[in-house]
Amino acid sequence: MNIYDVSERAGVSIATVSRVLNGNPNVSEKTRSRVMEVMNELGYTPNVFARGLGLNTMRTIGIMCSDSSDPYLANAIYYLERELRANGYDSILCCTGTSLENKRQYFDLLLSKRVDAVILAGSKFIEMEEKDNAYLIDAARDLPIMLVNGFLDAPGIYSTVCDDHSAIYHAAARLIASGRKRILYLYTSRSYSGTNKLQGYKDALRDGGLPIRPELIHQCAKDLHAARSLLLSLAAEGLEFDAVMTSDDSLAVGAVKYAHARNISIPEELAIIGYNNSMLSYCTDPEISSIDTKVEELCITTVKTLMGVFGGGDVPGKTTIAADFIQKQTTNF
Amino acid sequence: MNIYDVSERAGVSIATVSRVLNGNPNVSEKTRSRVMEVMNELGYTPNVFARGLGLNTMRTIGIMCSDSSDPYLANAIYYLERELRANGYDSILCCTGTSLENKRQYFDLLLSKRVDAVILAGSKFIEMEEKDNAYLIDAARDLPIMLVNGFLDAPGIYSTVCDDHSAIYHAAARLIASGRKRILYLYTSRSYSGTNKLQGYKDALRDGGLPIRPELIHQCAKDLHAARSLLLSLAAEGLEFDAVMTSDDSLAVGAVKYAHARNISIPEELAIIGYNNSMLSYCTDPEISSIDTKVEELCITTVKTLMGVFGGGDVPGKTTIAADFIQKQTTNF
């Protein structure tokens, strides 16, 4: 069932069917109803292969990100745009913020622009409540939805994820092997990615024979001064810890500042591990050991997968990429 | 002379003229030639007011930036996108890199998408050679071109700039007033903005009665480790300096690292001033005094000016916004 069948049955050209699909006003009301009638009869849904054939396509991809000023997402936008351009596609960028209502509104706006696909950059787009993801699952029947570091198991949704669980698991295991006993864990959110990271931490402790202590696990705003203050107040309350792991480099910068404020030597008395290996992790003295989440590779793979979908090839619903541990000066492995 | 005149003289509707302008295929060859003929006779050029009336508009603005992963430009994109959206416009983002050839190619691509205006974010789009800017001046006859922190004096080009000269001038004057005699200046590029900053430094020295020493002025890659190495090698050659001013926070981070490496006390023995007041300037210990270039205000003003142009109002060709000096821990004023 495709656009050719509709065109033949309706007795109009493919271009006319395409015009009806695109909502082009230059189609008579009579022709439009005829085409719509045939589509209903045949149960036709415009599909991604038609787009791949250059029919009904604007060669434009919508990109959504929750915050383009975040260093990780800023890099992702840069790489996605570059890869799409190299494949002859333009991109329309929407910075959505984090509220579900805004995300849905921007998503609808991209659909109304008749983009060929939507890329959701970052793990903030998958909601904890299943019903809140229904709008993505519905839309994926009509156009491919690509998740960069998020996962949703549904037809038409393609995920490229970094193996955050392994990354944190192996870093924590190295801390434990080097003798650290009280590893504090700071995280910013319980997104898809955030949940995997936290689980990696817990699994490493369990496998390393250490207890999982709730008093060592804390949520913190993604802000270096907030992280510094939180650690200072935890220490003032008598909490002891010999390592800090974080879900984001900004929190690790706060941990370095905490150690400086208390004259604690890094890494001897306190080991610190960041996440994302962003520019922030290079600004401090000592520079922060961090996890390179391969954002460039994630973006290249996302666009390659999308081109595979447009080409009608056999494309995996989920691709996982391994992270790298970047040893700098806040760990002594 | 406007679209109404063309429609009247050609004996077709305004919608038909608009269709011809948009290259819509649903116009007969006969009608198209008639409309084109009349446009030639009348010397008609589609103008921004027609777009403002909702004729011939996609309500889409092209944004070009040289590098979306740069923290300053990443923020600019975020604010521009937000402001455009609030005014009902979508944006198409192109990350161009810095070669003139690529910039021109992306610019043509945006024009071919029939965007309603192009915003050039950052000062990397104005070339030193006048002839290399001709393509912008030509294009500005057909659609508004907005420069964020760049300046080009031509009809249809609207600039919103931060007063970089004053910002550096006043910061340098404060260093001189506080007794600094040998102020090193590190800069990344001789763009429009870069040239103004350097001139601000020179003018402050001159007005403060200090000689302008070429050995104290150095270009450096926008990389904190490059800045650190450069300062270490200059010091090894015997160069003396009691303050470092920079055209970008990343270089100031390198200056902090240089001081740490040599056990130089900040700010007593060495004062350091960054530029842009980005997140980087908050990561170091001590945190870096820097210049807030008001990127949010610049972007709000740019979009406001653009809406003024679309509305046909009287709009200034250049708007200047003052920067703020943010005193932190690397200066002792």
Structure description:
- The structure is a homodimer of 333-residue chains.
- With 333 residues, chain A is α/β, with parallel strands linked by helices.
- Among the domains of chain A are: 1-46, 434 Repressor (Amino-terminal Domain) (Orthogonal Bundle), CATH 1.10.260; 164-293, Rossmann fold.
- Chain A is built from 13 helices and 12 strands.
- In chain A, the strands form 3 sheets. Chain A has a 6-stranded parallel β-sheet, sandwiched between helices. In chain A, strands 7-6-8-9 form a 4-stranded parallel β-sheet, with helices on both faces.
- Chain A is elongated and about 80 Å long.
- Residues 47-55 of chain A have low confidence and may be disordered.
- At the A-B interface, helix 5, strand 2, helix 11 and helix 12 of A face helix 5, strand 2, helix 11 and helix 12 of B.
Q: CATH fold name of the domain at 164-293 in chain A, please?
A: Rossmann fold
What is the name of the CATH superfamily of the domain at 164-293 in chain A? Response regulator
Task: Count the DSSP helices of chain A.
Answer: 13
Oligomer status: homodimer
Number of strands of chain A: 12
* Largest interface (C-beta under 8 Å): A-B, 37 and 37 residues
Q: What's the mean pLDDT score of chain A?
A: 89
Strand content of chain A: 15-25%
H and E string of chain A: HHHHEHEHEHEEHEHEHEHEHEHEE
